[in-house]
Write a structure and sequence with these properties.
- The longest helix has 16 residues.
- The chain has a single domain, classed as TIM Barrel (Alpha-Beta Barrel).
- The protein has nine helices and twelve strands.
- The chain is of the alpha/beta class and 302 residues long.
């Protein structure tokens, strides 16, 4: 099978076959999967006590130059496994049998048609736990609608407010505009948060949308603009997750803006937390200590 791809806002119009992709993400038609495993490093309402059943896909339609998963997100590692929808469904059921709380599809929107088929297949074969879409936010609404009724939880990023910043760091000047439209669609699909509070010490998200923002060094005001927008438009209809784990990528010295060659200032991060509190957001997550570095990265195949 092959098709001309316009799944993401880049609108590459590129030919994708089962084994080859010529677009920005370099992905072929068949999903390339690097790792399938329980993961414990997500927000508490996702990881819970038994972990989130993550499926890490290769390639990315956004391609931030500072990505921690650079080796699998920028092009393909050569170590990924091509998987059909039926094989993906097998993996979801295997994860469910292991006891994880949900299925967590990480950076998969450039494989949306096959991913949608895989979820349908798994549901028809007994998948009961929630399915989460862990994505960059740089999405086309029409592509998100392929997943309507299939995704229970969106874990989406809101990375940049400034078009100059998103252009410099991801070659995506339209990022904020596209991310806002996409977020409206995600919330339309999931509705307000629904929690399973059976275990009082560990509530789990069954449906809803979490918006993650990775704070970048030297960009406090960009982050504040993002919080202004999210709180004024959605408030506690979403969770906001503020992340301080920015890590300067190795091997890109001289290619990054000077401020991105260092980790995030603790003072700036605390100011952003205080700002979110002042805005009145209740549904929020923060990282309490320095989470930068690569110690918590999954064991990807490179």
């Amino acid at each position: 099978m092959e098709y001309i791809c316009n799944l993401c806002p880049r609108q590459c119009n590129a030919l994708r076959t089962e084994s080859e992709g010529l677009g920005f993400c370099k992905a072929p038609y068949l999903p390339q999967v690097n790792l399938i495993a329980p993961h414990y490093g997500e927000e508490p309402v996702i990881s819970g006590r038994r972990g989130s059943g993550t499926v890490f896909f290769e390639g990315c339609s956004l391609g931030c130059i500072f990505c921690q998963n650079y080796m699998i997100s920028h092009g393909l590692s050569g170590k990924g496994k091509a998987m059909t929808a039926e094989e993906l469904a097998d993996s979801y059921l295997m994860l469910q049998d292991s006891g994880v709380h949900n299925i967590n599809l990480v950076t998969f929107m450039h494989y949306a048609p096959e991913a949608a088929r895989s979820i349908e297949c798994a549901r028809n074969r007994g998948l009961k736990i929630p399915v989460a879409a862990n994505i960059s936010g740089y999405e086309e609404v029409s592509t998100l609608r392929m997943l309507d009724g299939l995704i229970d939880i969106y874990l989406t990023d809101m990375k940049f407010y400034s078009s100059a910043l998103s252009s410099d760091l991801a070659h995506a000047p339209s990022y904020f505009t596209k991310a806002c439209l996409a977020l409206d669609e995600m919330l339309r699909q999931t509705g307000d948060p629904v929690l399973d509070e059976t275990d009082p010490g560990c509530p789990l998200l069954l449906r809803g949308t979490i918006v993650r923002h990775l704070m970048l060094p030297g960009n406090l005001f960009d982050s504040k603009h993002i919080l202004d927008y999210l709180v004024s438009r959605y408030n506690d209809r979403i969770y906001i997750s503020l992340m301080n784990q920015y890590t300067p990528p190795a091997g890109l010295e001289g290619k990054l803006p000077p401020e991105l060659g260092k980790t995030l200032s603790e003072d700036h991060y605390l100011k952003l937390i205080s700002y979110l509190e002042e805005l009145g957001q209740t549904n929020a997550f923060v990282q309490e200590s320095d989470a930068s570095g690569n110690d918590f990265l999954p064991a990807f195949k490179y």
